[in-house]
Amino acid sequence: MTAVEVSVVLPAYNEADTIEETVSVTLETLASFLPEGSFEVIVAEDGCADRTPEIATRLANEDDRVRHIHSETRLGRGGALEYAFERAEGETLVYFDTDLATDMRHLEELVESVRSDEYDVATGSRWMAENRADRPVKRGVPSYGYNTLVRGVLRSDLKDHQCGFKAFDRQAFEALAPTVQDEHWFWDTEMLVKAQRRGFRVKEFPVDWTPKGDSKVDIVRDVFGMGSQILRTGWELSVSPRITPRVSLGAGTMLVVVALLLMTQYLNPQTVLDEMAGADPALIAVSAAIYAVSWPLRGARYRDILDTMGYHERWDFLTGAVFISQTGNLVFPARLGDGVRAYVVKARRAIPYPTGFASLAVERVFDLLTITALAGTVMLGLAATGSAGELLAALTGGASGDTARSGQTAVIVAAAVGVAAIGAVGVIVASARTDRNFVRSAVGRLSDDSYADYVAGVVETFVADIQTVTADGSAFARVGLSSLLIWTLDVVTALAVFAAFGYQLDPSLVAVSFFAVSVGNLAKVLPLTPGGVGLYEGAFTIIVAPLTPAAIGVTVALSVAIVDHAVKNAVTILGGVSSMAWLNVSLTTAVEESRSAGDIEPETTD
């Protein structure tokens, strides 16, 4: 009996109308150039909801060259192909779309390119000059744009990455498949790109291709899904290998150094140091004590958020977890410390990673909303009372100079972010009061594709976690009130530093401090430096300098910003180090574990 050399996989999802003819044509074509018994045709039926499973089972019973591999749940196009290839018997692994859009006369060239051991991977192409593919505008324009983007971002030499007509040598497949993260439509593109990067021999040849059925161009999948996967793969292949913890920390430090060097072009560093040296140490200590009070409030708030999700923990443990995660943000760039908290509650209290990340997301929404509300309330109050004419003049363009214009721009940006945050939370709160699924209906208007279901599911999970808090009136009130107290204390800390520099806390300075601290914390959202060092000081300074009376200039504003941020970071590090010792947590281990969280294998059946 001849051993199976070639395995052809037909990925099938709800193909009851066409699968029988596709299998018949495939068998006939393979028999025309391969020895009898040397090939098999596998129907990779991916959780179908129609009669495809029944038909595939019947075809397999009638012809021993046909196999039916079934999955109870949807694996996605890439997932279904991997699942079938792993169970195939041949050394040459082939697949093509079941609509037979590619002319089957090209099948021999596809198979023999790999079977002959001349190439490791072979793929048909609709974009080579020699082919005669008939591409309607609705398909051609997105396809051309997509392939251009892949070639540019991922540095691929191929013209067409998504033609559903490919073959792999088994050894190449087994080497590449574990490195491919996508399980949907980007799977074959990722396989091709990584095959080229790994040095495998890849053949691209022109094919005649005729579109079958309606176009499946999809806004959600093709724009958001595929685009994000291109960026993710580009980061993985070109950026991530170069970003070690040492490089990250060094780059963040260099940004701060460059910023400080640029400041010396218009500021005398000695003047800044002299201003800082003149601050009252006792009031600096008071500012640190004020800021320290906010941390138990952070732990209590996090306890309230987790309570609504069904996990009940002590506030002191959660305060320690928050301390450790914020310390991680000071040490590592790109806010890697955020994931540390999910690791700590998982490792010490068995709270699942999804809940840890979701609760952190809820906390961030309340933070952003509270910061915006504080700044907005102060601005409206001043506008109503007319007690700060210079502030209003600066905001409306009455103030002059480059620094004043920078302050106006910063406030406008902060206001725009704030309005967006308020609008988003308003929609979530409103949707929590109704049974309607706004996410599913909104995505459904854009797409009915399976990838859209995946996108909707991710968004739904995030929104549902926030709705869990917003739907509980008492929990919402507690979390909202604690957020208000936390960020008010953040501002009061800065005011205590102003007092340490000898400034009277009049209404104008208080109002400006609310703006400066709010915009400074919004600037820290950008993960450009560890702990936002340099970003906070810059935003704080360009707000305080133009919006306060002439007695406070750029030098003083920068000095206050540096001391204010240093006090807050010192309290954070002291609390973080103490918490790590108390909970026996390694920060580097926590970062690595949190980065690898979420790699869950799908459950499948044969």
UniProtKB/TrEMBL annotation:
It is a multi-pass membrane protein. InterPro entries: DPG_synthase, Glyco_trans_2-like, L-PG_synthase/AglD, Nucleotide-diphossugar_trans. GO terms for cellular component: plasma membrane. Its main location: membrane. The chain crosses the membrane at residues 247-267, 279-297, 368-389, 409-430, 484-503, 539-563. Coiled coil: none annotated. GO terms for biological process: protein N-linked glycosylation. Keywords: Cell membrane, Glycosyltransferase, Membrane, Transferase, Transmembrane, Transmembrane helix. GO terms for molecular function: glycosyltransferase activity. It is found in: Cell membrane. Residues 7-175 form the Glycosyltransferase 2-like domain. PANTHER family: DOLICHYL-PHOSPHATE BETA-D-MANNOSYLTRANSFERASE, GLYCOSYL TRANSFERASE. Belongs to the glycosyltransferase 2 family. This is Flippase-like domain-containing protein.
